[in-house]
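The instructor's notes for this session suggest beginning with a concrete chain rather than abstract definitions. Hand out the sequence below and ask the class to guess, before any prediction is shown, which regions might be ordered.
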Amino acid sequence: MIRELLNSVEYGWIASTALVLFFSVFLAVTIRTLLTDKKTIDSQADIPLTDGQRRNT
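After discussion, reveal the predicted structure:
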C-alpha cells in the first residue's frame, strides 16, 4: 500500500525547484560580491593578519 503510494507520486518538480533555488542563490551571492566596496573587501582581507583587534580606518 505504501509502496503503491510512493510509486504514484511524481518528484520531478523537486529537481526543478532545487535548480531554480541554486541559481537564485548563486546569482544573489555573485551580485553582492560584485557590489561590495573596496574598503569592506580590504578590511575583510586583513582579518587573518590581525591579532583580534579591529582597525578603525
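Then share the key points. The chain has a mean pLDDT of 88. The first helix runs from residue 2 to 8.
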